[in-house]
Amino acid sequence: MNTSNLLQVQDLDVRFRIDRKSEPFRAVKGISFDIPEESTVALVGESGSGKSVSAMAILGLLPENAIVSPESRILYGGRNLLQASLREMQDIRGKDISVIFQEPMTSLNPVFTVGEQIGEVLRLHMGLGLRQAQARAVELLNEVGIPNPKLRVGSFPHELSGGQQQRVMIAMAIACEPKLLIADEPTTALDVTIQKQILDLVAALQAKHRMSVLFITHDLGVVGDIADRVVVMQDGVIKEQGTVDDIFRHPKDAYTKALLSCRPRLDRRPKRLPVIDDFLKGDPKVHLEERHRGTSPEDAIILEVKNLDKTFFLKEGFFGKRAVPAVKGVSFRLPKGKTLGLVGESGSGKTTVGLTVMRLHEATGGEVLFEGTNLLSLTEKEMMAYRRRIQIIFQNPYASLNPRFTVGQILLEPMRIHAIGADDRERIEMAYQLLRRVGLPEASFHKYPHEFSGGQRQRIAIARCLTMKPDVLICDESVSALDVSVQAQVLNLLQDLQDEYGLSYIFISHDLAVVKYISDRVMVMSEGELVEVADSDEIYRNPQQEYTRRLLASIPRGLQRAKELE
Amino acid sequence: MSAILDNPPPAEVRDSPGLWALAWRRLRHDRVGMVSLAIVAFFLALMTASYFGLVASDWAKEKGVSYANPSFLAGSENLEAQSMAHKGAAAKAPPVDLSDVDPLAPRYKEWEERAAKIAVTEVKRSETLPFGGDKWGRDVLKKAVKGSEVSIFVGLSSALLATLIGTVLGAFAGYWGGKVNDFLEWFYNIFTSIPYILLILAFAAVATSTGKLGKGIVPIVLILSLTGWTGIYRLIRAEYIKHSNREYVKAAQAIGATNSSRMFHHILPNVSHVALVQLSQYTVGFIKAEVILSFLGFGVPVDMVSWGTMLAEAQNELVIGKWWQLAAAGASMAILVTAFSLLTDSLRDALDPKLK
Fold it and tell me: ∠A534-A292-A255 over CA atoms, to 5°?
């Protein structure tokens, strides 16, 4: 590997002015790291660690209220980018240093074809003519693996899938053969199988064009596949940096160790997942005994779904309707006190199954038998008694709590609706107990949802479900939006509650490692249909279907690297 | 149950401060909001006082000369008043002697003697008034105060009513969609397809000819609000379409909240900012719309005054350089309207728990 550095970040310190009264918030606290030539550096950290702010500082794209301290330096090609003029930066951006963002749909302009958007970069920075730019755009699309590039160059962004859009973003980023490519969580919004393809593409392009990549991610798992060096950040400070082998094999910092082992793994299933606190206290080996998972034919069945169908109708023209089947003849059984994992890529219909079972969507056909009663044939009034017993925790804890209600109001409302507890006094007491149970301070009762972090909000959502003492809990991607360390805490909480109250879970997720950890039985869905159902150890060890095998193959290899540690 | 408490007594249950209590606490820290609130409160107090005759009850008295100058412009020339005085003087001049042809001539003397017995005290009209006078010499300042009664009442109550109608209909259309939405959209289209003035005139014709809506300003309020709800209906409908698919509403459905609870308890507070901003714009719009109605003869009766009628009079006065009536009505309106919209802005912020 070449040892000379392409870019050096020295003592970078960024603060944000919030308002006039309070002290500016210090997001990045004097960090230094180097990006060597022709190598991939991964910047890893959870939300709020300052990783994206650092990357935006390199590009000079910090928001107006940011203050960069005068000692900070970002050295590139012998000059300090923080002191470069606007003109110089405009020259550098897109040409020498380019960037791929997380959300391809919002990063592409919907009213221009992809050819025009790639062409614009080329004409701006390379001075190509209209026709030359178009020809080069086709070449680039071919290079990033878009099928039939000659045709696709005239497509609008919405005509492409999420993965293809991200490929177009990458094509734009490499159009001018940059020396440094900054990839800011480029695969977070994508499915696992697509994530794998994009990671492979970035790695291949890096080698081919001999550029450097700064890869920003919250997921140590994906880093193992592509990075040469890893920088671990927390709260604006670099906790540890080193080669990928050092970080994965001999992590020194407690936080790095925690990050590596908080994530559920495919080969082990401890009774409880280790959480960051365990490591910071220096006692990481507390709950490492294995938990047995699986179902047996004698298990009592609490919920049985038979031939569930759900078709959405889209309007077409004045009178026309187009049927879009989302769920096609899905049948499964949920044993009492067990967890049924439901995996699949986006658009596979797994969320629709959850919502239809709860009658948040009206089913088109089929039966949902809850202790023998078909929920789908009940009137709205009769359903009320069952509403209480099947509850759902949504994916996005930022959206599923009403921002205008205090936590107290959120918890009291379901108890009032279902007349749980004799009076408000008793209900308030129950709410306090539940807050303690999910690990929140009692003072939370009077606060609003926005005053909490993502993990805490998910705890509030869980507490809201628990107020009704449900029998079945549907977790719809409930931990997907959370940071790895918080994810472990919430998974532990869900497991504790199952052990304590004998809850049955339907656990919907695209994250195969998490599903493997928490589920007794796993169900794989693709395009609205059930592909495979088996006990979780069985399905991971011995997948029967081609689709399941493909899903399992795309789990980032970083995890397996971590496994080698043991 | 055991009589002995083996658990410590439950933590004292504090009542959580309600949304409005919190909003008030936040509003108090907002200087702009508090000043606007004070101004709006002042106008409302003025309006109430004038309604009960505590101030400006003698606004119709013709105290000054025609177009009396404001006190601070006492010295400036007032051609209109001079010409009026001239006319008056001309009228008093001895009539041309027509005694030879006038059959009543012999009796004039007798009449004059009788007339002299009745004491006619010519009121000495003042040359200046605090903020000037109108054509008939009425005090412009008092007119503005009295006018606020009609204008603020019409503006505020029709805006409130229109916002209420628009919000409720918009909520139904957006939340339920389907047939309800189709019906309300059809209804909305009828209202918007008719030219605005024509629609107002149609309503006004019905209101005044049947007389069922009463006399005075109540019909104006009804006319304005029944024709003006369309804009806010559209906005609220769009917000409801957006929000009814949000996860927090789905979550409310999952815990068994009823439709009306989801519509008005869960979603409404989250879209109230739209209604509040519209409310302030409507208030402004309706104060101005009352002018049009008055001009067309469907507005306030001639024996009443509003800022609208003052503005209508001011058009002619401005040509002859008498600006104070325009200034009085315009400034009152501008101050109230600005304060009101700043207040609704502050209110919106105060009601949003996310903003500090």
Answer: 105
Token pair for A418: 């279902």
Residue B29 contacts A, CB cutoff 8 Å:
no
Considering the entire predicted model, what is its pTM? 0.78
pLDDT in tens, A117-133: 988 888 888 888 888 89
Of B129, B150, B166, the one marking the end of a domain is B129
Residue B250 and residue B324 in one domain: yes
Q: Is residue B52 part of a domain?
A: yes
Q: In what order do the strands lie in the sheet with A229-234?
A: A97-100, A180-184, A212-217, A40-44, A229-234, A237-243
Chain-chain contact of B248 with A409 (C-beta, under 8 angstroms): no
Complex ipTM, two decimals?
0.76
Q: Which of B228, B298, B234 is nearest to B271 (CA)?
A: B234
- What pLDDT does residue B90 have? 62
The residue segments making up the domain with residue B210 are 28-56+137-351
Cα gap A14→A184, rounded to integer Å = 18
Residues A262 and A484 sit within 8 Å (Cβ to Cβ): yes
Report which of A374, A371, A380 is spatially closest to residue A306, judged by C-alpha positions. Answer: A374
- Domains contained in chain A, CATH given: 301-564 (3.40.50.300)
Helix H or strand E segment including A502: none
- Which of B12, B247, B260, B355 to mutate: most A Cβ within 10 Å? B247
**Over A9-35, what HEC string results?**
EEEEEEEECCCCCCCCEEEEEEEEEEE
What mean pLDDT is reported for chain A? 85
Domain boundary among B105, B129, B153: B129
Q: How many domains does chain B have?
A: 2
Domain membership of residue B41 (yes or no) is yes
- Does residue B193 share a domain with residue B88? no
Give B246→chain A minimum CA distance, Å: 7
**Helix (H), strand (E) counts: chain A:** 22, 21
